[in-house]
Amino acid sequence: MPIKQRQNNAPPVSKGRPKGSQNKATKALKDMILGALDDAGGQDYLRRQSIENPTAFMTLIGKVLPTTINADVKGKLETTVINVTTGVPRAD
Predict the structure, then answer these.
(1) Rounded distance, CA 47 to CA 53, Å?
(2) Global pTM?
């Protein structure tokens, strides 16, 4: 596909990387992290960490969940509320 020339002698516009795609370094790092998690025990390891290191585990959850929700919803949508208790008291 030819590159389109912009008006007013602006540089040409190229497609670049598709929106939302990861660069090679990010993908490689993510693959290494997932491989290390698998080697450490996967879900069982994460379950232990949620008990032994709840602060670090909840930080991980807060960073990972918003980026991994992917849904193809058709029909009625049902929601489930999950309350997570960390054992850390809050200052009111």
Answers:
(1) 10
(2) 0.46
pLDDT at residue 69 in the model: 63
Q: What is the DSSP letter of 84?
A: -
DSSP string, 7-48: STTPPPB---SPTTPPPHHHHHHHHHHHHHHHHHTTHHHHHH
Q: What is the amino acid identity at position 66?
A: P
The pLDDT, as a whole number, for residue 50 is 92
The CA distance from 4 to 9, in Å, is: 11
Residues 6+ apart with CB under 8 A from 36: none
Give me the mean pLDDT over the 23-51 stretch: 90
3-state secondary structure labels for all residues of 61-81: HHHHHHHHCCCCCCCCCCCCC
Q: What is the per-residue pLDDT for 55?
A: 92
